[in-house]
Amino acid sequence: KTMLVLISIHFHLIRKVQGHSLMNEKLPVVVVGGGRIGNVHAQHVLEHPDARLAAIVDPREEVLSQWRVPGFQSLESFLADGPQVPAAVVASPTALHRAHVKQLVESGVRVMVEKPLTSQFEEDAAFADWLSHRHPQAVMLAFQRRFDEPLLRLQSWLREGRIGRAFKFVSILEDSRLMPDGYESPGLLQD
């Protein structure tokens, strides 16, 4: 549900920025990275009434063969004939986010990228600055927890005054699913 909200927002922004050429068609989307969260994004694109999963990019053939869409083992091969989609979800390993996002936005593709933007705080700032000057409104960072039902309920209760005035907010989130082999992340704090 949360990812569908993000994808809906992303699609709305793409249509608004790029005009109405796709207004009556399903928006074609490529998912870059077919790992744990990439599979979730791909499934949500398939479920979205206004979207069409156009392709998956992942270096692993066994991942590509799971989907009934064209598969590419590299972003370079996907982009070889020019961008074939107006929208992308980047869910590749964190260390590849910057390169993948840069390739896509320089090809004119709007991107929703999984958090974190890069693997280093300093690199985040530099890349965000580059994006804001060269490709404003081209990238959306998927910070989906703000749409989780418990957090939305809390926000509503705060607005209504049901629980008083907040002076501090601490959120501890856990994922009970095991990380797949080869999963890499700089850690929860960086994410």
SSE class: alpha/beta
Helix content: 25-40%
Tally the beta strands: 6
Binned strand content? 5-15%
Total helical segments: 7
Radius of gyration: 17 Å
Sheet with the most strands: spatial strand order: 3-2-1-4-5-6
Order of helices and strands: HEHEHEHEHEHEH
How would you describe the shape?
globular
Q: What is the quaternary state of this protein? A: single chain
Q: How many strands, what sense, and barrel or not for the largest sheet? A: 6 strands, parallel
Can you describe this structure?
Helices cover 39% and strands 15% of the residues. The protein has helices at residues 2-18, 36-47, 61-64, 75-79, 97-106, 121-134, 149-160, and strands at 27-32, 51-57, 71-72, 87-90, 110-114, 139-142. It has a 6-stranded parallel β-sheet, with helices on both faces. The chain is globular and about 55 Å long. It starts with a helix and ends in a 31-residue tail after the last helix.
Short description:
This protein has 191 residues and is of the alpha/beta class.
Spell out the blueprint of helices and strands.
Elements: H1 2-18, E1 27-32, H2 36-47, E2 51-57, H3 61-64, E3 71-72, H4 75-79, E4 87-90, H5 97-106, E5 110-114, H6 121-134, E6 139-142, H7 149-160
Parallel strand pairs: 1-2, 1-4, 2-3, 4-5, 5-6
Task: Please tag this protein with its features.
191 residues; alpha/beta; 6-stranded parallel beta sheet; 15% strand; globular
